[in-house]
Amino acid sequence: MARRLLSIWFPRLASDVSLRRCPVEGAFALTLRSGNADHLHCVNEAALARGLRRGMPLADARAVCPDVSTRPADLAGEAASLSALRRWAGRYAPMVACDGSEGLIADVSGVAHLFGGEEDMRADLHARLDRAGLAAQSAIAGTRGAAHALARHGGGIIADGALAAGIGRLPVSALRIDPEIADGLARVGLTRISDILTLPRAPLSRRFGPGLILRLDQALGVQPEPVSPEAEPPHFGVRMTLPEAIGLQADVMAGLDRLLDRLCAHLARHHQGARRMKLELRRVDGETAQVSIGLARPMRDPIRIAALFQKGVEEVDAGFGIDALRLSALVTEPMAPEQIGAGPASRAEDALSDLVSRLGNRLGFDRVLRLQPADSLIPERSFLTVPVAYSTPVQSPARRGPPRSAIIFPPEPVSLASPPRPGHPPARFRWRRISLSTLRAAGPERISPEWWFDDPAWRSGLRDYWRIETQEGPRLWLFHTPQSQGWQGADRGQTWYAQGEFA
Q1: Domain tally for the chain?
Q2: 3-state SS, residue 139
Q3: What is the DSSP string of 373-386?
Q4: Given its phi and psi angles, is residue 341 left (phi above 0), alpha (psi -120 to 50 degrees) or beta?
Q5: pLDDT tens across 305-363, in order?
Q6: Which CA distances in Å does 381 have to 48, 139, 254, 377, 410?
Q7: What one-character DSSP code corresponds to residue 223?
Q8: Residue span of the structural domain in which 414 resides
Q9: Would the pTM count as exceeding 0.70?
Q10: How far apart are alpha carbons 213 and 228 in whole angstroms?
């Protein structure tokens, strides 16, 4: 069987996709910033007719066409669109691969007769793309290089055994060679592929490099060039169709258990764990109920996951009955195999993750927080609060020096019964409407402000912190600023503040 390859080129893919989502009348272009200026990334047919070209500076484009409409280019969205078209083109060939950023290459060997021939296949392809609003050109040839060249220069079909004649009229730049090589060939009068077909290979290779000979041989079929489609990512979803409708919660959970066993086994084969799952329940009246859950960490334990679905399934309105279930893992993360028979530490970690999962599904995973140590000597900046589900615990580094209070709060003024002796904490003071007497004191611990942060609370300068144990019971963390007046304008050293409480 002769090998036949179909090349599809989308000359205005980015602009066509953008206009399909949000139509615009007249000239339109997508812009991409390069260096210190914006350039045209892709233009529509109306802009081409007005003289705009890809790569033109935006300022020059507005001078030529003042009424051109522009939008920023989305390279990630453009790649996603081409990937979607690659999957769609699977209706024409079992193997389809991306060919650059604006094209596809498909191996249609032995497939054309299913569409009535190669001409009918191309007609069906272009009719569907026209209905979708996508401009395209296509070509079918016996080699990838020939199909690629013809698709970008008018399109058509090259019969089997007529490669040299089919591509001979095309310019040498159609061989996918560097522009410098194409310019060098043009300077010596070799502008068409037919001009170099009969020339000796050795002089061409010495003067223009082996890349020219390789591309020419690939176009003529002398050198092989395979079609290597990208591997499809695994789909983590299972479904179940019921012979009779069900409505009891116990029946739904029984069906969910079966789906979880299958899905978790599929996740284990790919060493993945689910982070977000969705259960779809199709009712006999055509409506669909959904139950979604999130997981604090990657998981594939059916029993633990089923418990998280329990509350959502209780709230589902079964209507006249449910006849189909579908379970999908929407978000997955790598999860290496674990040792069988884990110890108490692993069980405690599993219990904690189950608790975070239950709280996260009710309150939101962004609201279940943990404390993480931060690299700062300032008390209020010595820790961070981060979501438990999106972080890993960090062991606090061993800290030298005086202990810090278990609870830290914003500074609260402390009223003194009498001025303290220099270098000593107050003997009697009032805090939160409670009269306290100092029993024991340790300090001071001097903390200076971080000069690279302009924190209004630390503009008063140095702070001397004292650990105070009172006769009434509270153990407080007090400070005062020895080098400036108090925050309320009191005399130097006479204004004290409480900022923490020891356990």
Answers
A1: 3
A2: strand
A3: E-S-SSGGGSEEEE
A4: left
A5: 999 999 999 999 988 999 999 999 999 999 887 766 656 666 777 888 888 888 888 88
A6: 57, 64, 50, 7, 12
A7: S
A8: 407-501
A9: no
A10: 22
